[in-house]
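User: I'm putting together a teaching handout on how multi-component assemblies are represented. Below are the sequence lines for each component of a complex, exactly as they appear in our records. Could you produce the 3D structure of the whole assembly as C-alpha cells, so the students can see both representations side by side? Please keep the chain order the same as the input.
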Amino acid sequence: MKRMLFLLTMIASLPVIAAPCGAGLNGKVTVLEGAHYQLAFSASPSPIPAGQFFELDIALCPKAVGKKVGQLSIDAIMPKHQHGMNYQAGISARPNQQLHAEGLLFHMPGLWALHFDVAASADLPRERLTYQQEIK
Amino acid sequence: MKARRALAAIGLVGGSVFAMSAADTPIFSAAEIQQISALGPWPPQIHPDPSNRVSGQPAAMAFGEQLFHDRRLSRNGQIACDSCHQTSQGLSDGHPRGLGLGESERNTLALFNLRWQRWFGWDGANDNLWAQSLRPLLDHHEMGMSLQSLGQTVREKFDLRQPYQAVFGDISAHNDEAISVNLAKALAAYQETLITPRTAFDDFRDALAQGLPASSTRYPLAAQRGLAIFVGKGRCVVCHSGAQFSNGEFHDIGIPFFKQGGGVDMGRYSGIQALKQSRYNLLSEFNDDPLRRTATATRHVSTVHRNFGEFKVPTLRNIAHTAPYMHNGSLASLREVILHYSELNEDRLHADGERLLVPLHLSEQEIDDLLRFLETL
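Assistant: Of course. Below is the structure of the complete assembly, with chains in the same order as your input.
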C-alpha cells in the first residue's frame, strides 16, 4: 500500500508535458514549424493522388501557451506552372480543437505547394506555413 | 525525363568506328514507366452512379437506348441523339460544330467513357450525366423540346409510356419535369454502357507495369517513340493524364474563343455560372443520393478570372475517330492538333494564364511518331 502511494505521488509530481501538436490525428502525420505556430495534418487518402479529392485533418497549435489562434485558410499552387487549384477548400471545426478541410484536388501530377495561411489573431500575427509534395 | 535512344550496336567496319542508332527504340526510365502505368489500367472499375437511381439497371439501359434513337424527342420529329452521336463517327458527328435544329457554337463531344467523368460538356456546365443528357433535349439549337412537350410525348406514346412505367413506376404520379428528368436518367444509364475497348496501348502499358520488356508486345516502335514524346518532351501527360487520358479539368491552350456569329465563348467561366444556376446539378432535389456523395466538386468549384477561355481537356481514347478537334472544331485532323502545340502562338494564351505551354518545335519524324501513338489509343 505504501509502495502504491509512493508511485501515485511520484506520478502526480511529474511536470505536465503538453501532448505534441497533432497527437490526436490518425494516419501519417506531417508537422510544419512556423515562427508562431506548429501545424500538424494527416491526409485522406494518403498519399495524396493526382486528380482525386482529398481531405485533411488538421491541428493548429500556437507555440506560446494561451495565445489566441487566427483563422486558417488553405490554398495550393503548382510553383512551376503558376496556377492554383480549381476548387476552393472548405474548413470546419472538429472536436478536440481539430480542423477538417475538404474540397482539395491536385488536378495535375507534379510539384504542388500547399499553403496554410493563419490570419492575425488578437495575440499573434498572420503566418503562412507551406508544405510541398510531388504528386504522382 | 527524356527517353533515351538506345545504341543497338557499335562496330568496326573497314577499320572505322560507327555507332548504329538504333532504330529508334526508346528505352523508358523508371519514372517514365511510372507515368505510363498511370495511364491505365483499362477499363477502370465500374460503379453505379449514386445520383441516378436507375444507373446500372438493365431495363433502364434498354429504355435509354430506345430513347437515344427516337426522333420524336425533337421539336421537328427528325433529330435523335444518334443524329449527332453516330457510331460511324466515334459517337460524334464529324462536323466542326454540332448541327441540330440549328448550328451550335461548339464541336460535338463523343459519348464514350462518360461514366468516369466529373464534368460534362466543353465548359463543364453539368456535373452529372443525366443533367447533361437533358440539356440537348431542351436546347433550341439542338432538339428544341420543352419539359411540357417531353412529358406529353411520353404520356401519349404507348411504346414510350410502357417502358417508362416499367422503369420509373406510374407516370400519372409524375409531372412534366419529373418525366423529363427520368428520361434523362434512362439516357444516362444507357450511355454509361458506351465504353471504348482495350487497345494495343493498353497491352503495352500492362506489360511495362508488370515489369515485362517493351519487346514483349507487338506495340509499334513508332508508337513507342510517340509515347516517349507524350510523357517526355511534349509533356502532354501533364493534362492528358490517367486512364482517361484527361485530368477532367479545363485549360486555355490558345485556341481563339470568338464565336462564329460574333461574341466570345467564355468557356469554363460561363460553365461554372450555368452549373451554379442549374436546377439539375448534384446539389438539387433531383439528385437521388440523399448523402450527395458525388457533389464535392460542385460544392467547392467557383469562378476565377483565368476560367475565361478555358475548355475541357478531352479524353484521347478513340481520338483518331472523332475529328475535327478542339472546342470549336477548328482543327480538322490530329496532325493539325499536333502542329498547333508544335508551333504554339503564345500571344494567344492569357497573360495571367498558366506557364505550362511552350511551342514544342517537333521535327517531322516526331510529329509522325506522336500521331502514330495517338492512333493506337
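A couple of points students might notice: Chain A touches chain B through 20 residues (CB under 8 Å). Strands of chain A lie at 30-33, 37-44, 53-62, 72-78, 83-84, 90-93, 98-105, 110-118, 127-135.
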